[in-house]
Structures are given as structure tokens and as C-alpha cells.
């Protein structure tokens, strides 16, 4: 009944809580699956290495007539030296200015290789204070980078979108964007597809990783797979520390290599951070799709209302031209900070949406109808009264900049 549907909406397990619990369950399953795979892959190798080491240790003790306790004590001293940064081969100084700069860069970016750690009490206390503000400022920098890269991609994609509309005859050839439509204001009437942004960022991240891997292979002497592995571990701020670049005492063209290493890490971390946030939007859409499968479908009134909505949004002959005229008149009447497609006021062609967004016909009908008709400005004002109504952080940036996120609201 309709009453049961209303009670279901008012229940503590609303859409946001359901999405959170579903994501937590999926993450737990994902972690369990990953642990199972890595255990199956790495456990035999670890057992074999341990067996070889025990055999080598006993053979060394027997050949050189050294007791095992004395040999183990020597190896513990060697492990302590390695933890302090001492190696058999000559390495760069860990705490000169360039080494310390490399260290603080890995701290504020949360990479944390672990090859250099403060040994004094004063250094550890200073690291806590330094990392508190440094990590917060770097996360803010990543968010601002995300906002600007999305704005740049939106400007370029909007120009391509308008060019395509002119070629298809859906936009007047003499239509020009005014000064108010330049820069970030070009997002007023149209928002880019999250899938297009995901594709562009993915291609850029892959290209950047391949170029950086080629540099590390040539300079560090790693094989290409290890270089790719290092790029992902570093750019994603995982930072295991099993491979660390720019650690030898001297390199050919050392200054140029250190500068290139810094730029690759900076651009890689910013790009992968942006890519992760776009992927998180896609994951959120998948969660919304899964939650819709569990919605109440036993109420006949809900089905009737859904059917009426589908008929109201159905596309009829000539509707696209009428909606085009309406959208051209109403383009400047909507606020650019509102979320989703339904407040954009931009005419979108059926052919382009089908080719780019790959959504169902029902969603396309709803999108075309709401895009053409729009909503009054007071709706935009009401949604902006609460500073946290549209979320905070990177997810809010993506919701405000991309098109496909309105369905999650």
C-alpha cells in the first residue's frame, strides 16, 4: 500500500544508509577476495624462500664454524642498520636537504615509502605536527586540482559538443558564446559525461605511467614491469617502499633526473587522485542501481505512477525541435551550481546521448524532458541554503561538475 511505502521511506535504513551498508559489505567481500588471491599467489613463494634461507644459514654456520646464535645476532645488527638507511652499496645521504625534501614530499602526499624515518624524539614529535597541516593542505590541493581539471575538460568537451550540434543542424550556425559563457561559465548549459571524463583521465594516467616507467627503466635499471608497479604504488600513494626511485649516490644528469622524478610523481598523484574520484562516482551509480533492485515493487500505485511518468516523458514527433526552442530561450535562466542534468537547461540530442552515455531509453526520455523544460530558479536557491546539502570534498566537486550524478540524489 501507499502507507507502507511511506513508512519504508521514513525508516532508518534510507537510501544513503543503504548505500553505505551495501558499500561496506562489498568492500569487505573485496578485501576477502583480495586476501584469498594474494595468499594463494604469494604464500608458496614465501615458504620456499624461507626454506632456502634456513638451508643457507645452516650451511654457512657449518662451513665457517660459526654458531647459529652468533650468526643470528649479527644478522639482527644488519637488519637494524638497514632500517637506519645503511646499505652495502653507496647511497645518497638520507638527511641532506634534497633527501629531507624528498622525505617531506612523501609525508604530505601520504605516500610514505618508509625508507627514511626520523630517529630522534624531537623529529618524531615535529613529524606529527608537520604532517597534520601538511597532509590537510595537500588534500586541499588535490581537490582544487580535481576541480580545475574537470573545468578544463568540461570547457573542451562543451566546445566539441557545440561543434557536433552545429554539424547535425541542431544549433544555429551563427550561435556564439558571449563573455558570460566563457571560462567556468561555460558549464551553465551543459555538463560533461562522467564516462567521458573517466576515459580521458584513464588515458592520461596510462600515458603518464608509461612515460615515467620508461624513464625509471633507463635510469634505475629496473625492468619495465617493476617500473609500472612502482608508478602505480607511488601515484596511488600506497607507497610500499620495496622500490624507491632516486636513491643511488650518483646518476647521469642527476639534477635533470631528480626534477623529472619530482614532476612525474606530482602529476601522477594528482591524476590518479582525480581518476579515483571519478571511479568512485561510477561505483556510487552501480550501488544506486543495485539499491533500486531492492525497492518496493509490490505496490500497484507505484507501478501506475511509474507508467504514467514514462508516458509523460515519451518522445513524440516534433518534440525535439520544440524542446530545442525552449532550451535556447531558457538557457540563461538556470543557475550553474545546481546538480544534475535536470537543471541544466541545455538541449541534448537523442543520438548523442545514446552513443555516449549508454543508458536505457526510459532514462533518456526522462532526461530529454527534464532538460528541455528545466526547473524554476527558486529550486536552485533552496538547494543552496544548506552548505552541506550537496556534500563536501571531492565527491561534491564531481556531483556539481558532471552530468550522470543527479540520478543518485
UniProtKB/TrEMBL annotation:
Keywords: Cell membrane, Ion channel, Ion transport, Membrane, Metal-binding, Potassium, Potassium channel, Potassium transport, Transmembrane, Transmembrane helix, Transport, Voltage-gated channel
Name of protein: KCNKC protein
Native source organism of the sequence: Turnix velox (Little buttonquail)
GO cellular component terms, semicolon-separated: monoatomic ion channel complex; plasma membrane
Compartment(s) where it occurs, according to its Swiss-Prot or TrEMBL record: Cell membrane
GO MF entries: metal ion binding; outward rectifier potassium channel activity; potassium ion leak channel activity
PANTHER family for the chain: POTASSIUM CHANNEL SUBFAMILY K MEMBER 12, POTASSIUM CHANNEL, SUBFAMILY K
InterPro entries xrefs: 2pore_dom_K_chnl (IPR003280), 2pore_dom_K_chnl_THIK (IPR005410), K_chnl_dom (IPR013099)
Designated gene of the protein: Kcnk12
Amino acid at each position: 500500500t501507499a502507507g507502507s511505502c511511506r513508512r519504508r521511506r521514513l525508516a532508518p535504513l534510507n537510501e544513503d544508509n543503504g548505500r553505505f551498508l551495501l558499500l561496506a559489505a562489498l568492500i569487505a567481500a573485496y578485501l576477502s577476495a583480495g586476501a584469498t588471491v594474494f595468499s594463494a599467489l604469494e604464500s608458496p613463494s614465501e615458504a620456499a624462500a624461507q626454506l632456502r634461507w634456513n638451508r643457507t644459514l645452516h650451511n654457512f654456520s657449518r662451513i665457517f664454524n660459526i654458531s647459529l646464535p652468533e650468526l643470528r645476532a649479527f644478522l639482527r645488527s644488519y637488519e637494524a642498520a638497514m632500517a637506519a638507511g645503511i646499505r652495502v652499496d653507496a647511497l645518497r645521504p638520507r638527511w641532506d636537504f634534497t633527501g629531507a625534501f624528498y622525505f617531506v614530499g612523501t609525508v604530505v602526499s601520504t605516500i610514505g615509502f618508509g625508507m627514511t624515518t626520523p630517529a630522534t624524539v624531537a623529529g618524531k614529535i615535529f613529524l606529527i605536527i608537520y604532517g597534520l597541516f601538511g597532509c590537510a593542505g595537500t588534500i586541499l590541493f588535490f581537490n582544487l586540482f580535481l576541480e580545475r581539471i574537470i573545468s578544463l575538460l568540461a570547457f573542451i568537451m562543451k566546445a566539441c559538443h557545440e561543434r557536433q550540434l552545429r554539424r547535425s543542424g541542431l544549433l544555429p550556425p551563427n550561435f556564439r558564446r558571449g563573455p558570460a559563457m566563457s571560462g567556468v561559465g561555460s558549464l551553465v548549459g551543459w555538463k560533461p559525461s562522467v564516462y567521458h571524463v573517466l576515459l580521458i583521465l584513464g588515458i592520461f594516467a596510462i600515458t603518464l605511467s608509461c612515460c615515467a616507467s620508461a624513464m625509471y627503466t633507463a635510469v634505475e635499471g629496473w625492468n619495465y614491469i617493476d617500473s609500472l608497479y612502482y608508478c602505480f604504488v607511488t601515484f596511488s600513494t600506497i607507497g610500499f617502499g620495496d622500490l624507491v626511485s632516486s636513491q643511488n649516490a650518483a646518476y647521469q644528469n642527476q639534477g635533470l633526473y631528480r626534477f623529472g622524478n619530482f614532476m612525474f610523481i606530482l602529476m601522477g598523484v594528482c591524476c590518479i587522485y582525480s581518476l579515483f574520484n571519478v571511479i568512485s562516482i561510477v561505483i556510487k551509480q552501480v550501488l544506486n542501481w543495485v539499491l533500486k533492485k531492492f525497492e518496493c515493487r509490490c505496490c500497484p500505485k507505484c507501478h501506475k505512477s511509474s507508467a504514467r511518468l514514462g508516458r509523460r516523458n515519451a518522445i513524440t514527433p516534433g518534440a525535439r525541435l520544440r524542446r530545442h526552442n525552449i532550451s535556447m530561450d531558457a538557457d540563461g535562466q538556470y543557475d550553474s551550481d545546481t546538480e544534475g542534468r535536470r537543471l541544466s537547461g541545455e538541449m541534448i540530442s537523442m543520438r548523442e546521448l545514446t552513443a555516449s552515455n549508454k543508458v536505457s531509453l526510459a532514462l533518456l526520455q526522462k532526461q530529454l524532458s527534464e532538460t528541455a523544460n528545466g526547473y524554476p530558479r527558486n529550486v536552485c536557491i533552496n538547494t543552496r541554503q544548506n552548505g552541506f546539502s550537496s556534500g563536501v570534498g571531492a565527491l561534491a566537486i564531481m556531483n556539481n561538475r558532471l552530468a550522470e550524478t543527479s540520478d543518485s540524489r
